[in-house]
Predict the structure.
Amino acid sequence: MSVTAAKGFQAAGIAAGIKDNGTADLALVVNTGPRRAAAGVFTSNRVKAAPVQWSEQVLKDGTLSAVVLNSGGANACTGPKGFQDTHATAEKVAEVLGVGAIDVAVCSTGLIGVLLPMDKVLKGVETAAAALSEHGGEKAAIAIKTTDTVHKTSVVTRDGWTVGGMAKGAGMLAPGLATMLVVLTTDADLDSGTLDKALRAATKVTFDRVDSDGCMSTNDTVLLLASGASGITPGHDEFAEAVRAVCDDLGQQLIRDAEGASKDIKVEVVGAASEADAVEVGRSIARNNLLKCAIHGEDPNWGRVLSAIGTTNAVFEPDRLNVAINGVWVCKNGSVGEDREKVDMRYREVHIVADLAAGSETATIWTNDLTADYVHENSAYSS
Amino acid sequence: MSVTAAKGFQAAGIAAGIKDNGTADLALVVNTGPRRAAAGVFTSNRVKAAPVQWSEQVLKDGTLSAVVLNSGGANACTGPKGFQDTHATAEKVAEVLGVGAIDVAVCSTGLIGVLLPMDKVLKGVETAAAALSEHGGEKAAIAIKTTDTVHKTSVVTRDGWTVGGMAKGAGMLAPGLATMLVVLTTDADLDSGTLDKALRAATKVTFDRVDSDGCMSTNDTVLLLASGASGITPGHDEFAEAVRAVCDDLGQQLIRDAEGASKDIKVEVVGAASEADAVEVGRSIARNNLLKCAIHGEDPNWGRVLSAIGTTNAVFEPDRLNVAINGVWVCKNGSVGEDREKVDMRYREVHIVADLAAGSETATIWTNDLTADYVHENSAYSS
């Protein structure tokens, strides 16, 4: 159901020929109203793709009528021509839908540094517009896949209103502010300021805490569109919770499909003096290649957790640190704890708890192991 | 020749039985004087191994008579017992050499979180002391290897005096201040203040700019011992240059032997507004797993260089960035440059130049590719 689960939305996903292999590569999501409120968060990478620059601009008035997304090319580092191409794509969508181009967001994903085949993109927009449907959400989710092995959708329905969404992303997963390509829709009747607040609060504790490989994309975009078609205006907290639930679910789906991964790792930092400390420590652990290799080898090598913690500026005393892996406290007071032989690592889920013993704040970062398959997939990506 | 190339030093490397496989695992380096000046730099990881804590203490007076090093166990995260073991090792060395324990530095390397077999270590110290020789430098260099495939030594001889050294390190290579285990010796007649200044200046532009896998060790130690046996006191600059040359050579040897690597990558950042900017950008590029995989696949995927630069706080404008890979400017003004097909990546050496077009400062960081062999080696390290 994805982006068409909420009332007031149509979507389509088609093969425009951008990808050589003929699979779906262009998606269109249209808000049919009555309201056309929107909010978005974008990559904090200073090298921003043309579609990110465009979409940030057109979102400034808090209004979007449509989002066009393509896989098969990121349109990043493509100079003035790349920006012209994004603009032309938005104009084409505006033309076929009868809306203004400044109400059309554009998202692209794929290889950096390559111009898009614009004849195919523009023709694809026409094809997608003709295929728009209130049941098109799933096809749209499929059309934005790159190295994703599965498409990712999520829906939460509350009392008469719904939040749904789709996401793509399997590599270059380490958001600075937002991440990947995500489009969320709701039929709740809310203004763009409320959407923005709920979206920022949700991404901060969901997508922002997914860190597959420490590599931040140039194209990360998360959009939230509200049609108001339910006629219901939920309370702020209730709405924010629903958005967070959908973001959390999509974030989990991204990690589960991370390139080459064989283990999903939940890094839970507890006992931190501040939430910022907990996030810094969690990210440091999640980005430690040696630990990620050890987890791949089902080796509860907690020394690599401690050496990662030691590189941070968080408040802690080395001789008070505790680490549990899958429930076994293998490190106590910075030294040897329970027998590491007790740790059962046969399953895909791995849970690391790092206790800083310096306070009561916590944070959880999601990552995955580092595998030969990741190396293989990313050594052959553009060739 | 290694640590015994300079006059006034003896060394030994023996198999003490710390490693199960019976290979050499304990080294002893002794300064026979007349002078016993010394300096050292240590890991900036806040989780410091017991031998690092000990050696930092005993170096405070700028004097060392001997260094004892073991592979087969890092003695890190081993609590009070680990520190007692380091102390006992220094006491044993002091006893057999007839010197004070506070003039004995201790270095350990291997798995974190495991206590050393102290009966074997103490017996090994006796065996090593009996084997001390003015020709023992190479055996000492061999005894400190862990996953190193080759031992690393370097010697620079100037007008009547010499600087020599040995190093170990093949993984967890990303120093904060110092790195790995390195012992340098000289027969120049200099005080510890001069040694310290020369050593810090050298490590800052050599070991500190080696970044194999972004993972900082708990045991990094670089020591410089001066015997004064040449009777010559070289000028500061001349001496500092010799120390830098030996450190640079050893750093290169470390990168060439990095775990699983098939490519040595020189990341040269030019046109930076400050040296700090150049180092930050170089490190960001060198730590980008996706780029390291692409280089492994001989794919000049410059988009990954730009996305890494974009995560830094350095001064630059995205549309002025230029990137060359092996001499081909594949990215010009933040966009598509010369044809990437022109890039020849068949050889082990890969040279990336990132031009920030924001000033005239430069820095070079050395790293290597990310390979399935790295994953394999590090998924099975402690098991």
